[in-house]
């Protein structure tokens, strides 16, 4: 059995992108997470130590996005998944990375990449 914990809309400001101006000026990225884990131990104990601390996880994910500029959102999404899977209770992580201000010469509402990684596959 796998339960799901979702954290959506984590706002980050970072300097990722293929173009020099993206690395120089930076832009907003948004992160949505869904984590697969068993929450029965936490439900029984009512103790934060028995579950994923989503407050500290959010801080760690934000830091991972905002460090070390890279070219591709694929690289950033993998970095986020790796952070989520550091907690051994997380069986899988679904990461959606939004780049709403991607430099595209067209009217659009969002660019988003979603990846799913399981323990041992990242």
Note down, in words, how this protein is organized.
30% of the residues lie in helices and 30% in strands. A 4-stranded antiparallel beta sheet has the order 1-2-3-4. The longest helix has 13 residues, at 54-66. Helix 3 runs antiparallel to helix 4 (73-84). The two termini are 21 Å apart. The chain is α+β, with helices and mostly antiparallel strands and 122 residues long. It has helices at residues 20-25, 40-45, 54-66, 73-84, and strands spanning 3-14, 27-37, 92-98, 112-118.
Topology (elements, then pairings):
Blueprint: E1 3-14, H1 20-25, E2 27-37, H2 40-45, H3 54-66, H4 73-84, E3 92-98, E4 112-118
Antiparallel strand pairs: 1-2, 2-3, 3-4
Helix pairs in contact: 3-4
Give a brief outline of the structure.
With 122 residues, this protein is of the alpha+beta class. It has helices spanning 20-25, 40-45, 54-66, 73-84, and strands at residues 3-14, 27-37, 92-98, 112-118. It has a four-stranded antiparallel sheet.
Q: What are the defining features of this structure?
A:
dihydroneopterin aldolase activity; 122 residues; 4-stranded antiparallel β-sheet; 30% helix; alpha+beta; single chain; GTP-CH-I_C/QueF; elongated; 4 helices
* Spatial order of the strands forming the largest sheet: 1-2-3-4
Overall structural class, as computed from helix and strand content, comes to alpha+beta
Number of strands: 4
Largest sheet: 4 strands, antiparallel
**How far apart lie the N and C ends?**
21 Å
Order of helices and strands: EHEHHHEE
Task: Name the helicity range.
Answer: 25-40%
Identify low-pLDDT runs.
none
Categorize the overall geometry.
elongated
Q: How much β-strand is present in the residues?
A: 25-35%
GO molecular function: dihydroneopterin aldolase activity
EC number: 4.1.2.25
Domain Dihydroneopterin aldolase/epimerase: 5-117
Function: Catalyzes the conversion of 7,8-dihydroneopterin to 6-hydroxymethyl-7,8-dihydropterin.
